[in-house]
Amino acid sequence: MANVFAFVESRGPDVRKVGLEAVTAARMLADKTGGGQVHALLLGPPGISGKANQIGQYGADVVVVVEHADLVNYNPEVATATAAERIKSGGYRAAIFSTSALGRDLAPRVAARLGVSVVMDVLSLDVEADTVVVRHPMNIGKVIATLAISATPAVLGMRPNVISPALNAKAGRVENARPAIDPSATRVRVVETRQGGGGKLDLAEAPVVIAGGRGLKAAENFKLVEELASAFGNAAVGATRAVTDDGWRPHSDQIGQTGRLVSPELYIAVGISGAVQHLAGMRTSKTIVAINKDKDAPIFKVADYGIVGDVFEVIPALTDAVREAKKHH
Amino acid sequence: MKIAVCVKRVPDMDVRFKIASDNVSLDEAGLKFDINDFDSWAVEAALQLKEKNAGSDVTVISLGPDVVQETIRKALSMGADRGVQLKADKVPFDGLPIAKALAEELKSGEYDLILFGKMSPDSSNGVVGPMAAEILGLPCVTAISSLEIANQKGTAKRELEGAQEIVEFPLPAVLTVDEGLNTARYPSLKGIMAAKKKPLDVKPAQLPPPQITVRKLELPAERKAGRIVGEGAAAVPELVKLLQTEAKVL
Lengths: 329, 250
Ligand SMILES: Cc1cc2nc3c(=O)[nH]c(=O)nc-3n(C[C@H](O)[C@H](O)[C@H](O)COP(=O)(O)OP(=O)(O)OC[C@H]3O[C@@H](n4cnc5c(N)ncnc54)[C@H](O)[C@@H]3O)c2cc1C
Ligand SMILES: Nc1ncnc2c1ncn2[C@@H]1O[C@H](COP(=O)(O)O)[C@@H](O)[C@H]1O
Known about the structure:
Number of helices of chain A: 9
Low-confidence stretches of chain B: none
Order of helices and strands of chain B: EEEHEHEHEHEEEEHEEEH
Shape of chain B: globular
Largest sheet of chain A: 7 strands, parallel
Oligomer: heterodimer
Number of strands of chain B: 13
CATH class of the largest domain in chain A: Alpha Beta
Strand content of chain B: 25-35%
Largest interface: A-B, 99 and 84 residues
Strand content of chain A: 25-35%
Radius of gyration of chain A: 21 Å
Mean pLDDT of chain B: 97
Strand order of the largest sheet of chain B: 9-8-7-10-6-1-4-5-11
Radius of gyration of chain B: 22 Å
CATH architecture of the largest domain in chain A: 3-Layer(aba) Sandwich
Distance between the termini of chain B: 57 Å
Largest sheet of chain B: 9 strands, mixed
Distance between the termini of chain A: 45 Å
Helix content of chain A: 25-40%
Bound molecules: flavin-adenine dinucleotide, adenosine monophosphate
CATH topology of the largest domain in chain A: Rossmann fold
Structural class of chain A: alpha/beta
Structural class of chain B: alpha/beta
Number of domains of chain A: 2
């Protein structure tokens, strides 16, 4: 029986879905060792403790809440010091983070401070006697490695969307704690978090991703993609590098080797050729649909369903049909 | 300014990889290697700062076998001043020993800035930069897509999911570079000639034992062959039906 630590990611006043996924993963690992406890850490501005109950619902035995007026934005030094201090004193078998922009920043720092190794982008995890065993994509997902981690704790960043947050109510006892260092005195300071595209679903979290490529011809034609996304209601909009390079969409929408990694239930590629660097960011999607006028486009090699055709004709028709299908649900 | 850039030699990803017979390494036959793209953007950032700040000096460091000297020479031919190879027979997967060995070399360099790539595509882990920063006890900003430096202070932008962070930090600092910061220059012929005469020190890497071992490498299951549902808007009803009944995503 071993206890497992989970870092619950938040942004502003909200807990992010990847945070609940981390709790669910920690719960699974604790149960695999014969039912250890899950201790979750949540940092944020005053009021964030209102979210602690939800974290208990997802399987945390203890929720440590650190509220501070200076934690409206992410503070890497406060988060590192506070998480490392907790993990050190808790004697955990593993510490689970998310492979998000925040998790990628935080988990390696915490691991280095504890003197242990870290694996990000974990696809699955298991535990043997004194070894945590994980699967991790290498070479932009073209090779899958099975890795044995002898370090204690094993510090892991879960890939978003590989574990769905699962209800598994535990005591969720709330403990209030203070930041390990003074948030107003750190060297690195996030002075602003600019929300891009206010309230839109995030690419890494959305169950449906609709991505547009150069086949859309011009920035204004992304309207077609956005309308299809809104017909789905649970979709986020992404893009290829050809599109972000031309400034049609922000770089943060780019999917691929040097952009974001997505793994949704449904991925629709609209006017995208399917270059290897693009495939690196989306090939693990559950169902892939491609619409391209060139029947030989490489994207059709990874697509479950393809339509050979002009996006300007197919996408409006698809948008209407999806709207119609949603009505009958 | 004194700037260090850590660069990794990585295989070109546009190939079908083959697993070696030991099952834990790649068959390197036929692979082409070059500097990691993120690291080339880090070198470019260093060179742009050097051009703005007279008397600056850019050191490029790579850990690995002798072939990494090619990668270092590439950065020297772009315009970096000196290179250091931390010699090791093999580059481990585990980022912690790499970060420790790099930090050991970096700690006495009195650098104002230490730059890393956001990630190397072969490890696909993205941890060495922030780990080295922590070991060195330096301020660190990861995955930056813009950078301004004035009066020993910096401001950088980071892309988050659906948002951006504006981050301020003091120098000396460690930064990791994302795409979008710049476009790397190509080495000029003159640069390539000059690079041959630039100093390249070779030192043994102080690599502690890894805590992560590769048990097995596999190629991911191929996606099962898909199908073309049809042509043009006429195929939409059939696609929607398949999404509802077969894929069950609608
Ligand atoms: C180091 C490096 C990193 C990279 N990282 C990334 C990355 O992270 N993400 C990424 O996406 N790319 C990345 N790239 C770029 C990648 O190689 C491709 O250039 C890019 O993905 C192509 O984008 P695209 O499919 O939109 O454009 P194109 O390749 O130009 O394809 C456009 C497609 O649209 C189709 N089309 C045109 N008109 C229509 C129409 N009316 N109706 C239907 N179809 C139409 C065409 O048949 C074509 O297949 C990277 C490249 C390098 C070198
Ligand atoms: N062997 C190495 N030599 C020099 N720098 C390295 C090495 N491995 C990793 N790095 C640096 O660390 C960054 C992140 O690598 P990684 O953690 O493997 O994704 C790279 O972009 C390089 O800047």
